[in-house]
Give the backbone structure.
Amino acid sequence: MGDIQGSGIEGSDIQGSYDELFAAVPQALADLLDGGDVGGSVAVFVDGEPVVDVWGGYADPARTAPWRRDTLVNVWSVTKTMTSLCALVLADRGDLDVDAPVARYWPEFAAAGKERVLVRHVLAHTAGLPDWDPPLATEELYDRSGVTARLAAQEPLWEPGTAAGYHSLTQGFLVGELVRRVTGRGLGVFFAEEVAGPLGADFHIGLPAEHDVRVAPAVPPPGLDEEYASGPGPATALRVRDGNTPAWRRAEIPAASGFGNARSVALVQSAMACGGTVGGVRLLSPAGCERAWQEQFSGEDRVLGMPTRWGLGYGMFGSTCGWGGWGGSLVMIEPETRSVVAYMTNQMREPTEDTRGLEIVMSAQDGIGAMRK
């Protein structure tokens, strides 16, 4: 890949490198920054190798600290793709049966009519536990044993497997508890030791304090302040200011507290794009990857109020799969072309008016197509 300097990319000062077939990608990032965004990073991997690795803008709302190569950002629900990957790794090893009742591994979970909740229901947001009843305060999310015990005691809102309702925060704790019951390790530790460590990926679920200096705080949508919240009404919700605290960074919130950048996200998810192996490291088998793309649900989501398709832990969108995070970050995986596009940003925008991730994904398509010819 060529260095960005002297490349002819117009607009904001973009750093990094890219293959000449992908010039539209750094240009798309530059356009977003010129349009007012604070900072961000974009990576495109094909066959497990980077063909775009660029970043630009600022890591702070005051625009005094430049976004650097190793800047980290809270990717919010993109974290779910990492947590789901951990479950898929265990399934591929034969340690976790996706068709087994959750209670096989977590006996207390059978309470209140949940003996029919299967592992695959948890991964596909069809378990009937989209929130806690009553909702939790943010500080309560930091008590893993407390929040999982409440989920184990709770009655599902619908017959498990018959409907989907986005489990915004609960899915991570449910999957994380399964990982802990099977391996004896917390989700963050398992991910670090079995996924990020072997791949050399700079992604963390539960961020050690020494990395705080690299974090780009979340910036609320234009015109809003740090009270901006993730959801309306009485449901368990997060505010921007919650996510910008040391307590949040330290916590292991497997659905939402992952910290990384586009490069690390694309590197990890390249395993799912490339039959389970990336950089000579095999995380799971080709059959284990195929399992993830088996449709578990298609229809109207009871929480999101929109059509959704779910595989095992990944949203499905035509020939691609992946998921986005609150405020705009996005990862999209296309097994057919063995490609991953990741866009991570500290600049949040309202979901109804945010097309940035899609624009970045589309900007990479011509280059991906040319490489596959």
The mean pLDDT is 95. The chain has eleven helices and 15 strands.
